[in-house]
Amino acid sequence: MNVSVNDAARTRRTTYIVLGVAFLLLIGVALVAYSAKKSNAEADQKADQYLAELSSAGLYIPTKELVVRTLGDDGGATCADPNSALKRGALLGGMTNGAAGPGIRPIIADKKFVKGQLLIIKVYCPGEAAEFAQFVDKLHYDPVVTG
């Protein structure tokens, strides 16, 4: 079998390129796995802190797995600009009688309605907590939720 020098060089170059790409892919996978592990440790720590806050506030305590999966290490959707007009409008939209269209009316809700969200912001995005607390403190509440 006659293999020319050019064919051998081309085969060697192709092998080096394939090995280089495979090596870079392995490095990328290792970096993602490392950051995911670090992120999970931070998510666990913040979930523990949030669950402790819920317990001290006397609110319902979900499972840690649910909190980690939902809020992650950054608070998820709750911390994505919680003081925007859209987020405030959605919060106020939840404080209604549940009707739709012309029958919808605002209600005076229990402070517990916003307490869980306030605790999420306090734990996961503390820089936004003061402004959000100021907003929810201006709302009117009545102790209508029991248990």
Detailed description of the structure:
With 147 residues, this protein is mainly α. It has one domain (5-137). 63% of the residues lie in helices and 0% in strands. It contains five helices and no strands. The protein has helices at residues 5-57, 64-71, 85-94, 112-124, 129-137. Helix 1 (5-57) packs across helix 2 (64-71) and helix 1 (5-57) packs across helix 4 (112-124). The termini are far apart. The mean pLDDT is 86.
List keywords for this structure.
147 residues, mainly alpha, 0% strand, 5 helices
Helix-strand blueprint:
Elements: H1 5-57, H2 64-71, H3 85-94, H4 112-124, H5 129-137
Helix pairs in contact: 1-2, 1-4, 4-5
Quote the distance from N terminus to C terminus: 86 Å
| Computed structural class | mainly alpha
Q: Radius of gyration over alpha carbons?
A: 26 Å
Biggest sheet architecture = none
* DSSP summary: helix tally: 5
Order of helices and strands: HHHHH
Number of separate domains: 1
Question: Count the strands?
Answer: 0
Residues in helices, as a percent range? 55-70%
**In one word, what is the shape?**
elongated
In what range is the share of β-strand residues?
A: under 5%
Task: Tell me, rounded to a whole number, the average pLDDT.
Answer: 86
**What low-confidence regions span 5 or more consecutive residues with pLDDT below 50?**
none
